[in-house]
Amino acid sequence: MSDALTVISPVVELFGWFGFVVGTPFLLAGTVMRSRSRRWEQTVAVVIPAPDWAHAATARWMDSSGELHETEFDDHPVDTPVETELAVHYDPWRPTRPRLDPPHEDGRALRTVGWILIGVGALCAVASIVLLFVG
Fold it and tell me: pTM here?
């Protein structure tokens, strides 16, 4: 039994360190992604007559502070009917870079992997302490 414990103990210790060291960056990255995805706000943009230089539909929208913005949306052709309403998502820190699709990446997968790895690390830390007293 002692030989098995001498083999298992370093393996458990290795998994413990691996879980903590690798799980922490995953958890931090997922948390940062979640905080960034919550910043996006939604508003309505209205297609305006396209200027001569435009290659796509041009639309205007107002941000939460009441400032008017204008940009081209490559997803819609120039001949999109005027006064068509589009759902626009924008970052209040950079309102000049809107997007039409809702932001979906909230870092949930990274946080889940991080919590699993940290859980494995914690479980292995407890097992390592138990192995000290058993052996």
Answer: 0.60
